[in-house]
């Protein structure tokens, strides 16, 4: 699960980022509206945590710009303002949730996971594709009822594919999910992890399909 944290308070963002990473989230942090707009233009995030008071432009402007592009990435506004008018304004502009600082980390993590489940079309914490399942609470995969343990990058790759099953994900989007912004990795590395996952899913009813020139998608394996 890849998050974008947009927060102008560097000390707060570092503290919050460290805690969310311990909760199992992959995280990118930016501190102003311009940087947020650049990263959001490339896509690849499961949830955006958006402060309202930012340098260069407001959080509301970032939100409105995102929605004008018809980008449906879930956005949770995190702000010190408990104004009802501000809350209504943000929700009307396309925010999916609104939390007032200070907040409990457990509640924040639970709300993030709820947004991700809603986006994936699941009412529970369990996401499935054929006999492959993933529990968004425990972050564990199972295949035909048996635990499927994966190295970190393979885990991130399969997580992104399962959460977007039936939808094609570009190589650029998957590379961001798997490697993040700081890692220097190319398409060859991504293809290697896809190959390793396909080997581990050989006996599964779920399959990773390549759409040449477009990317990859996870779907139920076609029967011969």
TrEMBL record:
Database matches in Pfam families: Response_reg, Trans_reg_C
PROSITE patterns: OMPR_PHOB (PS51755), RESPONSE_REGULATORY (PS50110)
DNA-binding region: 124-220
Top-level lineage group: Bacteria
Residue(s) carrying 4-aspartylphosphate: 51
Domain Response regulatory: 2-116
Database matches in PANTHER family: REGULATOR OF RPOS, TRANSCRIPTIONAL REGULATORY PROTEIN TCTD
UniProt protein name: Response regulator
């Amino acid at each position: 699960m890849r998050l974008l944290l947009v927060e102008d308070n560097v000390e707060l963002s570092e503290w919050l980022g460290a805690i969310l990473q311990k909760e199992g989230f992959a995280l990118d942090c930016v501190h102003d509206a311009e940087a947020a707009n650049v990263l959001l233009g490339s896509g690849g995030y499961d949830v955006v945590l958006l402060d309202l008071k930012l340098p260069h432009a407001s959080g509301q402007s970032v939100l409105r710009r995102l929605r004008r592009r018809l980008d449906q990435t879930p956005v949770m506004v995190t702000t010190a303002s408990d104004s009802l008018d501000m809350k209504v304004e943000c929700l009307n502009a396309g925010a999916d949730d609104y939390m007032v600082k200070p907040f409990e980390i457990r509640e924040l993590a639970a709300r993030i996971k709820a947004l991700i489940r809603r986006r994936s079309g699941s009412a529970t914490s369990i996401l499935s594709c054929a006999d492959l399942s993933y529990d968004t609470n425990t972050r564990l995969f199972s295949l035909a009822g048996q635990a499927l343990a994966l190295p970190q990058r393979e885990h991130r790759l399969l997580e992104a594919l399962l959460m977007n099953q039936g939808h094609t994900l570009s190589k650029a989007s998957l590379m961001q999910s798997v490697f993040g912004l700081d890692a220097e990795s190319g398409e060859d590395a991504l293809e290697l992890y896809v190959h390793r996952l396909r080997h581990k899913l050989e006996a599964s009813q779920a399959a990773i399909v390549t759409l040449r020139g477009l990317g990859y998608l996870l779907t139920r394996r076609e029967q011969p």
